[in-house]
Amino acid sequence: MTATALTLTGARTGQSAPVSFEQVTKKYGNVLAVDNLTLSVENGELMVLLGPSGCGKTTSLRMLAGLEKITSGVIRIGDVVVNDLPPRSRNIAMVFQSYALYSHLTVFENLAYPLRVRKLKKDEIKRRVQEVAERVQIADLLDRKPREISGGQRQRVALGRAIIREPSVFLMDEPLSNLDAKLRLHMRGELKRFQRDLATTTIYVTHDQAEAMTLADRVAIMNKGVLQQVGPPREVYRQPVNMFVAGFLGSPPMNFLTLDVQAEEGQLWLTGPNVRYPLPPEQAAAVRQASLARLALGVRPEHITLSHHPDERAIPAEVYLVEDLGNELLVDTRVDGQQAVIRIPAGPAPSIGDRIWLSFSPADLHLFDPTTEARLPSPSPAPRATLS
What we know:
By secondary structure, the protein is α+β, with helices and mostly antiparallel strands. The protein has ten helices and 20 strands. The longest helix has 18 residues, at 181-198.
């Protein structure tokens, strides 16, 4: 074993470590899976890699774990370059979508297995298993086998088996996706609590933006192998760098209306066959600087106010569908053939086919170049708007 490997394997004391990807690329033949990924994960941080299937997030996790060899670049755990270290020498623990438990072993034996591999004494193994079982609330299940417990309990066993190793880094690859909606919501909160209590660097992969928003200290959004944006979830939600990020975060996602830009007597207007919307002064300077003939106007569903009365500073729309969710309504509208969804509190609902007008605060508008999909600079960060 090399001196580098000894540095990591000798540090099995529950000591968390930061992680960094430095210009990491992964190719499968001519297919570029991860393109020049540079990302730093701070010590004790919970970083969520978020994106659609095939975006490179799981490949990035597998390269960190040593399950995939990188094509180029550098990966560090702490101060150690781990490019050529085998997985067992990286002091990481993984929790997968599948529980990956030994079906013929009891819960106790599944938890004890990583410690037996290290040849710890029986008394130490028993003490550690009991301690971890109580932490993940499965102490009364230690004599059962995986087939005799529920999916949520099996996921707790998998989590406990990762915790008991006292790794430098936790890697979690969509660990909740096999659970039903109610249990997934519960386990999401439990994972957040466990990670806070353990203060261990954690990288969590998911395509579920709700998981990312609720779990992450920071979220890293990927698309087609390229890192798009990194930041605290609320910051990324409020200030997305491009249309992909804006449309991926949020449920329902941000609305985009692509309209023509016209200038008349110093006023910029966004126009369409049935739209003539005066662009607020706060955004007009950025549009002028970009010299755009067309503009993608972005606004989130919760930031739109609906009115039945004509307003020259609002956008006319037609109600296409209304979804009553009990605590709120989602009103699906059409604006010159383009979709715009509005989220409003529960109450009297408009009818399908109604003519309505959509208005919004200038602070809640997001402007994008429809060709490059990049966000135009804002005069200042948009504050959270109060629902009308």
